[in-house]
Design a protein that fits this description.
- This protein has five helices and eight strands.
- The chain has about 190 residues and is α+β, with helices and mostly antiparallel strands.
- It has a domain of about 130 residues: Alpha-Beta Plaits (2-Layer Sandwich), CATH 3.30.70.
- Strands 4-1-3-2-8-5-7-6 form an eight-stranded antiparallel sheet.
- A hairpin with an 8-residue loop joins strand 2 and strand 3.
- The longest helix is centred in the last third of the chain and has 12 residues.
- The radius of gyration is 16 Å and the shape is globular.
- About 25% of the residues are buried.
């Protein structure tokens, strides 16, 4: 396995799009399905409307004790009961990237309590953060969330809390792609 991923919006794939919501900025073209490929897809496949490339990298802005806590409760993705997923591509403002890393950390954690809030929804809502800013992609981050249908409201509560934080003052583009997978389908 590689740490590179391609998210492909098309009319094929194991994840059926149930809703697409534009939160800020420009949306993505409507797609019926999404495939998550654990590799680089060199060209946009036939019948596809968009493709987002990313890399899973080191966890940034986190201290050792936060990493240890996260790893202790963060479940694996592709659990059989996790029939719901949400892909959230985000682009932050130039003002965010002009800040020094310690300034971003202060907003991310000390003011917005990003890790602490997220921890409250584990293990029910699993997630993986993908980085794409350095790949020249239209978004800086892609976050992939998975959860069982009965945890959909908890996920919505998590989103509401995150979006109410100081960190979201620096978001200029955000899209939600809500997905559902048949029980026999895998990633």
């Amino acid at each position: 396995m590689t740490n590179r991923y391609s998210f492909v919006g098309s009319d094929q794939g194991p994840w059926q799009v149930t809703d697409m919501r534009t939160i800020f900025g420009e949306s993505l073209a409507p797609a019926r399905r999404v495939s998550v490929v654990n590799n680089v897809v060199a060209e946009l496949p036939a019948n596809s409307v968009w493709m987002l490339q990313s890399v899973v990298s080191n966890i940034r802005y986190s201290k050792r004790d936060e990493l240890t806590m996260l790893r202790a409760v963060q479940p694996a993705l592709n659990r059989s009961e996790a029939l719901c997923a949400v892909l959230i591509p985000i682009k932050k403002t130039a003002q965010w990237w002009d800040l020094a890393q310690d300034e971003r950390r202060a907003i991310f954690e000390e003011q917005s309590h990003h890790t602490a809030v997220g921890m409250e929804y584990l293990p029910e809502v699993a997630r993986r953060l993908h980085h794409c800013r350095d790949l020249g992609e239209p978004f800086d981050f892609l976050t992939w969330f998975e959860f069982a249908p009965e945890h959909a409201q908890a996920f919505k509560d998590l989103l509401q809390r995150m979006r109410a934080s100081k960190e979201w003052d620096y978001v200029e583009r955000e899209v939600e792609v809500w997905l559902h997978r048949a029980p026999e389908q895998g990633l």
